[in-house]
Amino acid sequence: xxxxxxxxxxxxxxxxxxxxxxxxxxxxxxxxxxxxxxxxxxxxxxxxxxxxxxxxxxxxxxxxxxxxxxxxxxxxxxxxxxxxxxxxxxxxxxxxxxxxxxxxxxxxxxxxxxxxxxxxxxxxxxxxxxxxxxxxxxxxxxxxxxxxxxxxxxxxxxxxxxxxxxxxxxxxxxxxxxxxxxxxxxxxxxxxxxxxxxxxxxxxxxxxxxxxxxxxxxxxxxxxxxx
Length: 227
Description:
The protein is mostly helical. The protein has helices at 23-50, 58-72, 76-97, 102-135, 164-226. The longest helix is centred in the last third of the chain and has 63 residues, at 164-226. The relative contact order is 0.14.
């Protein structure tokens, strides 16, 4: 990899090293935990769809659909706060990866890939699902006029629509995938902290060995002189 992207001379002991204790790390962990909290709040709704074999009642689907519609039709301030939180996470990654060390490229680079996957899942599945739920567009919707021949539906983009229950299951599965991806980001950041800790312990151990060897050598020289 070119040296303009990676500073191979930078170590965890360098002054300009941006590691697990830097503010950029908190810019990554903060939004990640924020989104995990939102997904945890959605887990009681997702659990009956994915993790139980009990039959799903139509009243439950109505309740879930009402909840998702309320979320999607929330004031624009809510969407702006979410966008700002996503942007703060990206800014933290860019700060840590500017003139990155080998440790930054390993842990923060992999975290950035997972973060991008999470954003892709959110935009491709969750946002699109919220739009469909808010519009109430399902294959059995007879009140909705079909799109003209040769034109794409503005909501679906010409894609095949699933039924209501299957669409809600896809959204629940997307929430689970997104949660696992975000947990992976936290695991990598924790791995960076652990690697720095072990590196610091090894450095202190070598420093003590060097100091012990340095203090022993003058004594040995004085003994030789007396002899």
